[in-house]
Specification:
Blueprint: H1 3-24, H2 33-48, H3 54-67
Length: about 70
């Protein structure tokens, strides 16, 4: 797949991370599982060009339903 498509997908994943931060504000636990999951996937992409699997995309969509707008 084109890199620009994945850049867009991971841009949305970054927005999801921000949405989680905004949801919890100052009360976001440092070890929040979903927030760490999002930041880990972003890091994997930026450092290793690792793309999301279909299952990971489903997980991200489910989280977006909880935290996104």
């Amino acid at each position: 797949m084109k890199s620009s498509k994945w850049d867009m997908i991971f841009g949305k994943l970054k927005k999801l991370g921000t949405a989680i931060e905004m949801h919890f504000g100052d009360k976001l636990p440092i070890d929040h599982t979903q927030y760490r999951w999002v930041t880990d996937r972003i890091e994997y992409y930026e450092k290793d060009n690792r793309l999301l699997t279909k299952e990971e995309m489903t997980i991200a969509n489910d989280m977006w339903k909880l935290y996104g707008s």
